[in-house]
């Protein structure tokens, strides 16, 4: 279901290189890791049964991307090319472990809900791609905003897909916000008077929802492209 790093990393590197003209904002839309690169699809499809679940995992992923870019950027001048990928993976795995332990300690119920998908952040190739193509080659003034835009782009898709699936499949929105903000947010959830469609919160709903978002992005991109008109020939030209 999700692409493996061994097969997608060369493609990710090439894609990032081709879109490096504006790395600070590319992750939000033009080179969005979920809608364009199609990375991190496994947690994207599995976790987004509600807006809160998608938002929580997206925030954790954004934190890991930001800290990875920070640490890689600090040591990029001393990296040995032969072992740089190993160093990147060690940094990412260490940060994911920190996130896993903190979420288990302070957001235990949410941690139980997300389950294995917090440790699986380490397999998200978008993070490794950021470390290789941005953080290890650009100053912190570029790599940190680029990592933030990539994380926010991924979080936005997670939250949007989770919100759509929760709304259609349960007829609610932010129904489990207390998992993220505590018991004081238990009454914030919205319950709409609509007929729920159970398939939306089942695995097929995740695939259909992601396909809808990808199609919507492609449609909007096509609308923004200038119309191409056939070249006109001058009078008397052969």
Number of domains: 1
Report the order of strands and helices: HHHHHHHHEHEH
Mean pLDDT: 85
Percent of residues in beta strands?
under 5%
Coarse shape: globular
Helix-and-strand structural type: mainly alpha
- What order do the strands of the largest sheet run in, or round the barrel if closed? 1-2
Low-confidence residue ranges? 14-20
> What fraction, in percent, of the residue positions are helical?
55-70%
Please give the number of β-strands: 2
Protein architecture, described:
With 238 residues, the protein is an all-alpha fold. The protein has one domain. The chain contains ten helices and two strands, in the order H-H-H-H-H-H-H-H-E-H-E-H. The protein has a two-stranded antiparallel ribbon. About 3% of the residues have low confidence.
């Amino acid at each position: 279901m999700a692409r493996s790093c061994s097969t997608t990393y060369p493609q990710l590197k090439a894609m990032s290189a081709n879109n490096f003209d504006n790395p600070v904002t590319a992750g939000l839309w033009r080179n969005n890791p979920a809608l364009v690169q199609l990375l991190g699809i496994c947690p994207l499809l599995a976790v987004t049964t509600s807006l809160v679940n998608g938002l929580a995992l997206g925030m954790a992923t954004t934190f890991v991307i930001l800290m990875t870019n920070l640490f890689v950027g600090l040591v990029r001048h001393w990296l040995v090319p032969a072992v740089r990928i190993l160093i990147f993976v060690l940094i990412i795995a260490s940060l994911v472990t920190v996130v896993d332990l903190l979420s288990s300690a302070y957001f235990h119920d949410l941690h139980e809900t997300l389950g294995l998908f917090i440790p699986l952040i380490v397999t998200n190739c978008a993070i490794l791609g950021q470390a290789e193509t941005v953080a290890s080659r650009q100053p912190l003034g570029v790599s940190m905003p680029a990592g933030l835009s990539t994380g926010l782009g991924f979080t936005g898709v997670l939250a949007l897909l989770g919100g759509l699936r929760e709304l259609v499949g349960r007829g609610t929105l932010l129904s489990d916000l207390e998992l993220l903000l505590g018991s004081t947010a238990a009454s914030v959830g919205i319950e709409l008077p609509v007929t729920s469609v159970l398939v939306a919160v089942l695995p097929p709903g995740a695939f259909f929802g992601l396909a809808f978002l990808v199609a919507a992005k492609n449609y909007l991109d096509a609308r923004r492209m200038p119309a191409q008109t056939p070249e006109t020939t001058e009078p008397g030209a052969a």
